[in-house]
Amino acid sequence: MIKKTVIPTPVELARKLLRKQNDLTPADIEPALAYLTEYWKKLERHHPKDDGSLIGVPHPYLVPSYAEGHEFDYDELFYWDSYFMIQSRLGEENKALNIGILDDLLHEFKRYKIIPNSSQMYMTSRSQPPFLTSFIFDLYDAYDLDNKWLKGVIATAKEEYQTVWMGTRKPNARQVYQGLSRYYDLNYLHDLAEAESGWDMTTRFNRKALNYLPVDLNALLYKYESDFARAARILGDEDEAIEWESQAADRKGKMNRLMWSELKGLYYDYNYAKEKRGTVSSLATYFPLWAGMVSEEQAKDLVRALRRFENRGGLATTDTPPMNQFVPGKMPTQWAYPNGWAPLQYIVVKGLQRYGYHDDAKRIAMKWLRANNEWFKEHGLFLEKYNVVSPDKPPAKGVYPSQTGFGWTNAVFERFAQEFVLNDDKR
Q1: Alpha carbon 271 to its chain's center
Q2: How far is Cα 43 from Cα 98, in angstroms, rounded to an integer?
């Protein structure tokens, strides 16, 4: 019997070539991974006692970056950085460190009734994007921790949720409009509230952050409410679980009404002072996808909208260049086009996976991996942010010196490498 030769079509050949071009092998990224393994050792700190403005915390923790002789250096613990830095380090060998970092954050809350932006006295006027319940459940699931531990840490998370994020007056006047919350700072300055968003600085709020209900913040609070419901069920309180699910559903309905654009298929921050949506399309729109609060139709719209942000090196933080990008004296907006940031790539990829869009998730992750890896091959280091439009060029500058290292970049690179290169079943 003569075996029939199957000749691939031009389209199939093009797809095969594209897959090959997009692929990375373990050998391609081995030098970068070896560098990161050594670099993590430089980021560990332990300051159990107050030292000047540095707040003492009981356990060792990770700082975002270290460069010998750099005048802009870190010794402090950061809130949302810590969450992303553990994402590639959830193995048994890092169990004590990871649980210790979470305990440090809880220690800060118990002392100051806020988890500060970082463990510096002068940072206690504001927090950072709240990932506490996600941190808790990542550790609970990774290490099979017991329910007694869960009950204790969730109780502190509930207090943080209620005191900080649902506060209605100083020092935590964040819940301001229809039960939804904003970013804030005790000094009641727009730019410092913007710093609490972690997006310092961005075009999203037009330098008026106190006037906006941010998409990402309220999606994170939806995630808190969903996590509280999950914890209640684990701990055997069905009535409490139903109450938290009701609160989450209420937040979801309000966000869809105020922030969702049917026309554009995106969420937008809501300017409650003017009672209208903002106009800046940003990756904050994918936090609801990551939090699991969108419908299947909304998920489809969000996937279609990826083309607004997707570039050669990954996802740009916003879809268009800032209008004032080249105006002398204007505030630099590093959390905007053409820059891409590791935590936002991670949020989008995990959101896509959650809704079953695995091919889209892999495509974006591989673009980010290649951009990071090519920069490392050329310069021998990782960056806190990248120019995803022109990955061979430096990122747009911000209000503080650009950092190398970099904690969350390292972790997201490692996590994507683990999932899409080293352990990819389709290889």
Answers
A1: 22
A2: 13
Asked if residue 353 lies in contact with residue 361, where contact means CB atoms within 8 angstroms, the answer is yes
Contacts of 181 (CB under 8 A, 6+ apart): 165, 166, 174, 175, 213, 217, 218, 221
DSSP secondary structure, 154-198, as one string:
HHHHHHHIIIIIS--STT---EEETTEE----TT--HHHHHHHTT
pLDDT of residue 282: 98
417/36 Cα distance (integer angstroms): 12
Return the amino acid letter for 34.
A
Confidence (pTM): 0.93
pLDDT 10s digits, 1-45? 554 556 666 555 545 544 555 589 999 999 999 999 999 999 999
Residues of the chain falling short of pLDDT 70? 1-22, 69-72, 323-329, 425-427
- In angstroms, the CA 56 to CA 48 distance is 5
Are 402 and 394 in contact, with CB atoms under 8 Å apart? yes
User: Given this model, what pLDDT does residue 399 score?
Assistant: 83
Share of the chain above pLDDT 70, in %: 92
Neighbours of 60 (CB within 10 A): 16
Measured CA to CA, the distance from residue 148 to residue 230 in angstroms comes to: 15
Contact 209, 190 (CB under 8 A): yes
* CA pair distance 214, 210, nearest whole angstrom: 10
